[in-house]
Amino acid sequence: MTETLRRIMPASWPQPADFPAPPTASDRKRWADADRAARPERVRRLRDRMVKEGVDGYFGVRWEHMRYLTGLPFDESEVTGSGDSGKFLVGLDELWVLADSRYTIAVKRDAPDATLYEIERQLVDVWADLMIATGVHRVAIEAATIPHLTWERLRTAAPDVELLAIEGWVEADRQLKEPSELERVAAACAVADRALAALLPSIRPGVTEKELALDLEWRIRTGGADRLAFDVACLAGAEAALPHGAPGFRKVESGKVLLFDFGAQVEGYRSDMTRTLFVGEPTERDLAVYRTVAASQDVVFESLWEAVSAAQRGVALPAGRVYDQMARDVIDADGRFPTYGHGLGHGIGLATHELPGLGRRSPEEPLPRRTVFSVEPGIYIEGETGVRIEDLVIIDVDAGRVDRITNFPRDEVVVGA
After folding, report:
1. Sheet holding 412-415, edge to edge
2. Is the pTM of this model over 0.90?
3. C-alpha angle 92/94/97, rounded to 5°?
4. What tens-digit pLDDT sequence spans the chain (417 residues)?
5. Who is most buried in 51, 324, 334, 405, counting CB within 10 A?
6. CA distances (Å), origin 8, targets 200, 278, 415
7. Sign of dihedral through CA atoms 274, 278, 282, 283?
8. Structural domains of the chain ordered from first start
9. Contacts of 4 (CB under 8 A, 6+ apart)
10. Cα separation of 90 and 92, whole Å?
11. Rounded CA separation 139/105 (Å)
12. 237-249: buried (b, 16+ CB within 10 Å) or exposed (e) per residue?
């Protein structure tokens, strides 16, 4: 997957038509059908874990788990005002979704295999009745997202019900992606690729970060996305040294870099890409930074091909942290620039950041055999410049597949010239 970087000037910019078209209505229906068919097996795997751990209930509070297991399409924007609606309880034989009057129709329509449990009061006020109605006596709870005070109130409300704090059960299952999930991530990547290609003519000295971020958002939303995966980051010049900066009223300047970090969402699944562009003629220092970051990415891509090939022969895939160190070693060996402080990458799907992790503190377990994650090394020089290149990569050992599905070129793209 190693590429020789080219200098791309306006006459040879990528065009929106270079990338796959937006998903069709038949694509969306096919994905919905695939989810509907997959949910019973997803729930069965969770129940197998419940039996193994000796619990007869699993209480879920994370919206992405709810969508994955029940079909109810909440996300972060809805959860903020939904109260306790959308939380769910998986029993050994039945699955319940909690909802107040605002969501009862949605539950019946979008989660047809679940039993609606109507609530008009706070969770702690109905907890004892819920446990009695469902016959649950020992319940696993996604404790990382439950406030301590709520936990104590639940324990007090039903003292005969044992609460077991758990973490990572569904997350671990979700990192092994189904083919239709990978298709949606790829479709979201294509929406983002097209949007950035369409934006290029609008980038010129004097335009502000906010103006460009809003323009890019509009192109994403009107180009096939259901919504943004997250807010657009557009950072000019020295601001590009902020790994998670926000666009401001700063103007784009000639001779500086311009960094975009953004993603689209298609049928619940997200993309995430970063491109660092050059406004006018790049400086030698910025070119050197860019090429070093690209080289650190190349080493990872090459190693992924080798690892998937070896895995087909029965060798376990490396852990994500191995690739993080691999990319760091390239930057460190160059010796001119500081290496990035964040992780090399993260899984992506219903959430923008999920398992598997590719960072220094990521688990030592092997990468899943079929998954998708970002590879995003960077170099940040405070007060001066910053470069990050982020691509999403699908690996599928059984298919012998390593695909970079972010297809906007990684080359040295010059804008505003």
Report:
1. 7-8, 412-415, 273-279, 257-262, 233-236
2. yes
3. 125
4. 456 789 999 999 999 999 999 999 999 999 999 999 999 999 999 999 999 999 999 999 999 999 999 999 987 777 777 788 889 999 999 999 999 999 999 999 999 999 999 998 889 999 999 999 999 999 999 888 888 999 999 999 999 999 999 989 999 999 999 999 999 999 999 999 999 999 999 999 999 999 999 999 999 999 999 999 999 999 999 999 999 999 999 999 999 999 999 999 999 999 999 999 999 999 999 999 999 999 999 999 999 999 999 999 999 999 999 999 999 999 999 999 999 999 999 999 999 999 999 999 998 999 999 999 999 999 999 999 999 999 999 999 999 999 999 999 999 999 997
5. 324
6. 12, 10, 9
7. negative
8. 7-21+177-415 (3.90.230.10), 54-174 (3.40.350.10)
9. none
10. 7
11. 27
12. bbbbbebebebee
Is 404:393 a contact under the CB 8 Å cutoff? yes
Q: What tokens appear for 84 in the block?
A: 């306790």
Output the six-digit token pair for 311: 């895995």
Residue type at 161 in one-letter notation: V
Alpha-carbon separation of residue 274 from 3, 165, 277, 325 (angstroms): 17, 36, 10, 20
Which residue is it, tokens 């400086």?
283
Six-digit token string for 293 = 């970051």
Backbone angles phi, psi at 102, to 5 degrees: -70, -20
As to burial, measured by CB atoms within 10 angstroms (0-12 exposed, 13-18 middle, 19+ buried), residue 82 is middle
| Strand, helix or coil for residue 66 | helix
Asked if 267 contacts 68 with a C-beta cutoff of 8 angstroms, the reply is no
Tell the residue number behind the tokens 């097209």, with chain if given. 194
Rounded Cα distance, 114 and 155, in Å: 25
Beta pairing partners, 115: 96
Alpha carbon distances (Å) from 290 to 4, 283, 284, 286, 335:
13, 11, 10, 6, 14
- The CA distance from 82 to 99, in Å, is 9
Q: Which DSSP letter does residue 164 get?
A: E
- Longest Cα–Cα distance of the chain, Å, equals 72
Identify the CA nearest to 378 among candidates 250, 248, 244: 244
Q: What distance in Å separates the CA atoms of residue 90 and residue 323, rounded to the nearest whole number? A: 36
